Amino acid sequence: MCPGCGHRSAFHSIKKALKDSDITVADIGCHTLGYLEPYRMGQVLLCMGHSSGTASGLSLFNNSRRVVAFLGDSTFFHTGLPGIINAVFNKHNFTLIIMENGTTAMTGHQDHPAVGRNFREVTQKVPVRQVLEGLGVENIREVDTYNQSKLTQYVEEALEEEGFKVIIAKHPCMLKFTRELRRKGRPLPNPVRVSEKCNRKYVCVSNFACPSYQITDDGSIWVQKDLCIGDRSCIQTCPSEAIVPDDK
User: Tell me, what's the pLDDT at 247?
Assistant: First the structure.
């Protein structure tokens, strides 16, 4: 995943709320990369838009393993709605996490109905939450993925509740965002650095897994400034509070 990707913060947070016995269902999108180390989420993957329908099936006659499904906001509009309608209609018991980054990132940042424009002109926005509410989804939570503790809390709460639950985990695609900044001639924030407080727990590398962090031969951590976009999402992950803005 790209440096600053909201999906990284999401998976880092969500993993804290899951048990080894939980079933996670992936879908097609940038978030499909959540199957890779260190997140290892998305044990089941079939095709675009399948996750809600597959999760519904996996929840049937299942009283011991909780089911969590993932769906991108673009796929939500493209092929995700039938499975959601089925989950509402049949009162299926699983948690759907919609990974909303405001674009169709995996195929070139095309717009989708929630953005408010198409390739020609400005259009009426079709917000994800309003669509869910219109379909009859009653249990909806919404949070920015950079608020990692809140997202973990929301997942923990949802997994203890019965029925169909939706969490909208949102943050703009940072690859798109930084490209737009550069086109406007605006600088990115300063990168971060690792201070002397680092106790080498390697959460930034092994758990959060931002590619900006590098390990030297002596075991110390440094930040590749050409990769770091200065988004600060990593600061909250460090148990020793060693990640700080580099103001030099």
Answer: 80
The residues, ordered by sequence, that sit 6+ positions from 203 with a Cβ below 8 Å of its Cβ are 237, 238, 239
Beta bridge partners of 23: 67
Q: Where are the alpha helices (DSSP H) in the chain?
A: 6-17, 51-59, 73-75, 81-89, 128-134, 148-159, 174-183
CATH no., domain 6-178: 3.40.50.970
CATH 3.30.70.20, applies to 192-245: yes
pLDDT at 36: 94
CB-CB neighbours of 44 under 10 Å: 18
159-194 pLDDT, tens digit each: 999 999 999 999 999 999 999 999 999 999 999 999
Q: What is the mean pLDDT of the chain?
A: 96
Residue 49: CB atoms within 10 A of its CB come to 22
